[in-house]
Amino acid sequence: MSAQKRLKLSGRIGSFFHSIRFRLVLWFSVILALVLIAFSAFIYINQSRDILGESEFRLERKMAALELTLSVSSTGIIVPRGVLQDTDVLVFTDATGQVLASNGPLPAKDTLSLAAQAKQEYEQGHNSPDGAVSWTQGSNSLHTNYMFVTIPVQIGPDQNVLAILGSPADPYGLDGRLQLELAAGSLATLLIALLGGYWLADRAMRPVHTITQAARTIGETDLSRRLNMKGKDELGELAGTFDGMLGRLQAAFERQRQFVADASHELRTPLTIVNLETSRTLASPHKPDDYRHALATTRSENDFMTSLVNDLLTLARMDAGQAVMQNLPVDLSDVAIDTIERLSSLAARNGVQLEAGELPDARIMGDRQRLVQMVSNLVDNAIKYATGQDKKVSIETGKTADTAWVRVSDNGPGISPEHLPHLFDRFYRIDQSRTRGSEDEAAPMAPSGSGLGLSIVQWIAQSHGGEIKVESQPGVGTTFLASFKAV
């Protein structure tokens, strides 16, 4: 076998021993083996006790029969034929332990030892109503365990002896067969359990293998694949979770691609305008007003690109969790006043009346700078899209028992219901064909929005544990409400 094949085989073996299937089968087999051992031990102990009880019962009946048929002659104690079997041992001793007579296959030296043992067992106590004492011991000469019964027997008018009757504790070999059968049955059961357990584990882990293979084959360009497993068990739930994760990844990649495409598109337009203006200006001599117009256009586009890049940087830091947030007491009414002071000139230039409504104390815990940015984005957005003759934007704050809020309202054209669910999406604009406004030579308008302001607003609100809601009615106006936990 080549080194490459040996390495491949070694890798497969190592993979098998480290697999969940192997560990499941191993633990299942260990638990089953312990159960079989406990069950076999229980059966064996009970059966052995029954076998010994049966042997003791037979010995006691045989001893009772001997008591009725024993006789004494001048030659000694006479035991009638037919009572004892060839494997039975019968010994008579006097009170001092002297052997008076013996019968059976036991050698003389073992007979003396048995007499001493019987005397000791008898003196330690009786374990039956008729004074009999029973015990079990092994015999090196007979190579088996014997059950002995010792009982006092009167063989004459004034002569009492101890009769020791022994018989094989298990004459039919039931104990050995029971051990063999339990061992063989347990091993056979364990082997079947191993094979069946591996088959079941392999069958149970097939969905995991399917998920693994799918995860290996799914790439960034193939996130539309799904497992679509119909099972309702844990593995089916895992497959469903995996499909959900793929769906979220697909949506995230699509958002990323859309984000890059939108950002490229947004940057391409001002860069094209700057390039055209500079090329036109450098192509031939122009009047000072033409140069002023070109510089004003370039500055306006530069301001737009600067704002866009800053918003992109803010969103990138937010997505990466790198945005630093303070957690200090902040009064939303102070935030509203700061916003009015900052944007009053922009509102006046656009002919919008920026007014403050009721501004009671509304304290929360948060980052003042971020909250000012949030309210400023809302007000700036309202000013840019304000239309009509009587254009108004108002800011209000308020507080309930456990909630503080800030509201930005306008009387502009409103937003159609189909746009509301997407209003906080990045680069989303209600009017995709809208231009960014005309740049007047003397005072160009502030660059229009890039479609990122409301995304930043939502992130700031959520990072403070709050929420942002929007209500709008076409022809009536739009209201943004940001609510937070009050302190």
Compile the SSE list and pairings.
Layout: H1 3-17, H2 20-69, E1 71-73, E2 76-78, E3 89-93, E4 99-103, H3 108-124, E5 133-139, E6 144-156, E7 159-168, H4 174-217, H5 234-283, H6 288-320, E8 328-331, H7 332-349, E9 352-356, E10 363-366, H8 368-384, E11 391-399, E12 403-410, H9 453-463, E13 467-473, E14 477-485
Parallel strand pairs: 9-11
Antiparallel strand pairs: 1-2, 3-4, 3-7, 5-6, 6-7, 8-10, 11-12, 12-14, 13-14
Helix pairs in contact: 2-4, 5-6, 6-9, 7-8, 8-9
Describe the structure.
This protein has helices spanning 3-17, 20-69, 108-124, 174-217, 234-283, 288-320, 332-349, 368-384, 453-463, and strands at residues 71-73, 76-78, 89-93, 99-103, 133-139, 144-156, 159-168, 328-331, 352-356, 363-366, 391-399, 403-410, 467-473, 477-485. With 487 residues, the chain is an alpha+beta fold. A 5-stranded antiparallel β-sheet has the order 4-3-7-6-5, sandwiched between helices. Helix 5 (234-283) runs antiparallel to helix 6 (288-320), helix 6 runs parallel beside helix 9 and helix 8 packs antiparallel against helix 9 (453-463). The longest helix has 50 residues, at 20-69. 22% of the residues are buried.
